[in-house]
Amino acid sequence: MEKMIAVGIVWGATNAIMRRGALLWDEALKSSAKPNPHSTLCQKMRISLGNWVKLLSIWQYSIPFLINLSASATFFAILSDAPLSLAVPVTNATTFAATAVFGILLGERTHLPRAFFDKTIQHYSVHRESTRMDESPRT
């Protein structure tokens, strides 16, 4: 369970940081030339690829993105040893809460009461499911 929570915290932290990097990318795109609406499919694909490369060149996005991908690999390794019905809700609930907390730490506006209410419901559901699984006979 600790590994699931750790993955959720890493995902949540990197989500909030990547959002900040994506905002920098969005500002860079707005300041660049507007694409021609009558461009060919090949030109549109080249522009999209260039935009993606520009996004990855922003370290505030690319470094958290790589850390996030590493956590994803860890999550898949966890799935080999943990029941899916426990791993997914625990990790998702932790990710959601960590994203809210790190967003607040980065100065984002968050609807805190609703976030805590949603997390309380999710944690209750996860606890109920894990208790039920502990009580069920193993084969």
Helix and strand sequence = HHHHH
* Tally of separate helices: 5
Q: Radius of gyration from the CA trace?
A: 20 Å
Distance between the amino and carboxyl termini: 21 Å
| Class computed from helices, strands and strand pairing | mainly alpha
Structural account:
- The chain is mainly α.
- It has one domain (2-135).
- The chain is built from five helices and no strands.
- Its main location: membrane.
Element layout with pairings:
Elements: H1 2-31, H2 41-56, H3 59-79, H4 84-105, H5 112-135
Describe this structure in a few short sentences:
About 80% of the residues lie in helices and about 0% in strands. The chain is built from five helices and no strands. The model has no long low-confidence stretch (mean pLDDT about 80).
Supply the key terms.
139 residues, transmembrane helix, TMEM234, Transmembrane protein 234 homolog, membrane
